[in-house]
Amino acid sequence: MAESALLRVCNLNTEFIIPDKGPARALEDVSFEVHPGETLGLVGESGCGKTTALMSILRLLPSNARISGQVFFKDVDLFGLSEKQMRAYRWRELAIVFQGAMNALNPVMRVGEQIREAITLHGLMSSSEAEMRVGELLELVGIPKERGAQYPFQYSGGMRQRAMIAMALACSPSVLFADEPTTALDVMVQAQVLELLNDIQQRLGLAIVLVTHDLGVVAEMCDTVVVMYGGKVAEYGPVDVIFNDPQHPYTQKLLESFPDLNEPTDPSTDSRQVLASIPGAPPRLTEIPPGCRFEPRCHVRIEKCKTESPPLMDVGENHLAACHLLK
Amino acid sequence: MPDSPLLIVENLVKHFPLNSSLLDLLLRREPDVVRAVDGVSFSLARGEVLAIVGESGCGKTTIARTLIGLEEETDGTILFGGQRIGTHERRLRAGLIPLEAGAVGTREQQTLPRMSLKHLRQHAQMIFQDPYESLNPRATIFEIVAEPLVVHGLLRKREERIARVKSALEDAGLRPAEDYFLRYPHELSGGQRQRVVIAGAMVLEPELLIADEPVSMLDVSIRAEILNLLKELQKKRGVGIVFITHDLGTVAYFADRLAVMYLGRIVESGPTAEVLRNPQHPYTKALLSVVPVPNPRLRRERIILQGETPNPLNLPGGCRFHPRCPVAVAACKQSDPAYIRVAEGHETACLLVQPA
Lengths: 327, 356
Description:
The complex is a heterodimer of chains A (327) and B (356).
Chain A: E1 7-16, E2 24-34, E3 39-43, H1 50-57, E4 65-73, E5 76-77, H2 83-89, E6 94-97, H3 111-121, H4 127-140, H5 157-168, E7 175-179, H6 187-204, E8 207-212, H7 215-221, E9 224-229, E10 232-238, H8 239-244, H9 249-256, H10 303-307, E11 313-316, E12 319-321
Parallel strand pairs in A: 3-8, 3-9, 6-7, 7-8
Antiparallel strand pairs in A: 1-2, 1-4, 4-5, 9-10, 10-12, 11-12
Helix pairs in contact in A: 3-4, 3-5, 4-5, 5-6
Chain B: E1 7-17, H1 22-26, E2 33-44, E3 49-53, H2 60-67, E4 75-80, E5 83-84, H3 87-93, H4 107-123, E6 124-127, H5 141-152, H6 158-171, H7 178-181, H8 190-202, E7 208-212, H9 220-237, E8 240-245, H10 248-254, E9 257-262, E10 265-271, H11 272-277, H12 282-290, H13 330-334, E11 340-343, E12 346-348
Parallel strand pairs in B: 3-8, 3-9, 6-7, 7-8
Antiparallel strand pairs in B: 1-2, 1-4, 4-5, 9-10, 10-12, 11-12
């Protein structure tokens, strides 16, 4: 399995140096693999390090970040490259649809122009070829190519998101990172964008890394899931196992707190179940508890959880979880 | 009157006129209007939760704002506790109506309609979507929660006021309340802020709560807490809730009745469980099919409507859903469907649905 992986993240550690305070440990020993044509979901609450993981892999973090660990793309260690060499990988092999893509477009530049810029900056083709390519890309994401001459404000939210996806696909990458691609969108537009991502993946054979906090989206889209909590991997496994046989207490609670449309409550019986919730808030990254990071909010914690951080353990085929209660 | 509904809305219409040019004025053209809400009727019993569901731009927030008097309705009646509370009635009571158009009246007359709005808001409160922007950053939590009491001149005695604020905060799950009195909003997390917003709304002990997407800005694990809190308040206090959302998953858990809106109209309404189990309108069916289900074994065929909600400036003729409807027939272009009763309390507006 290790040979066929397209992207291998090994023991990724990221911390931010904050003046007058200790370092904020945003990521600790995060490891996962992405295979060609696979969709991997990175799930967790705000502030659990999902976006930091993406930015670390692409080396797009601000200068106060310290990264260690290794990221292999087809056996090339991305952290060993110079900034100039890295540029050959960024966008050509590893492209990203940024969070809040709705506002990530340049408001005073025509959409087609912005996509062409991504192509010509990498010097892949002449400007007339690039023009053709922009048309192709827009059609690929379902935007009539004439609308490339319009400005972002003339686009609806869903169309802007499509344009961002077209831009990410400009240099035919092999891995597409999508950071909360549907968060600000309506359910129907969300369904359209997810269908588009699925369709593109099938046509181009891309690997997709999908960052989201919406478990429903993960269940619909992903093959493999990484559940993150407080900067660490809490559970890692195939989507079916994560949803139907979760091992980590955090994953279990998170799934219970998600309202399910298939089980509407019946007002006539009034035996309404109370939706499970997780009291408390995720740990501050500057004050990480010494033991398990989920311990203060955990409903099944034991004495050991306070002092010792649990390692990731094998709990089944390709299924890992970090909890002291698992054998 | 325990049996009369708390809120009755009949044929509510809200049109926003667009700016017309000087030429339009000279030619006396009718100004273009955005038909945000175009004939909506519903009622809410005491202690009931009604969810209004739809995509952005379907008019659900406009309904909320009109109910609480933040917008003036164009037409229709709103009865709250048996009393008409529409803008027209407020103006009539204030003696504003007989005056010439454009003239505003005496100072006394100007202030009167505000008085009745104030009266309304003592009994009907609203919770807004974004807890990061709906709290005054320079006021302490005590000041924020006590402000409605100050505005309405209630509980003038210091001890009473403190006791009421304390119980409102504790009911909203902020315990011990004294710890929060002197803190500022920026010291609190998103979930705690939304609790403060709820405490501020509940401090007047209203009969009606209008919640506009109260959890859409919050993390999944915190959403559940806020929903449980609202439900508890509804049970304990018997407060009626109009719950506005685009998330059908939350509705299934939370609401007694459900109204699905499309382009300013309710296309289907009924008891939540009944509508979810037996949706009739093609729009409801499509909306339900695209809600992501948190179980990979249940991936289903999705009905994805192409395009987006049309501009409410030029509504399509006939049934307003026909351009996007997957099952539309020729007749849908011609006639606007009336409501058809499908089951007890379950109504829908579609030409293809057979009445029960």
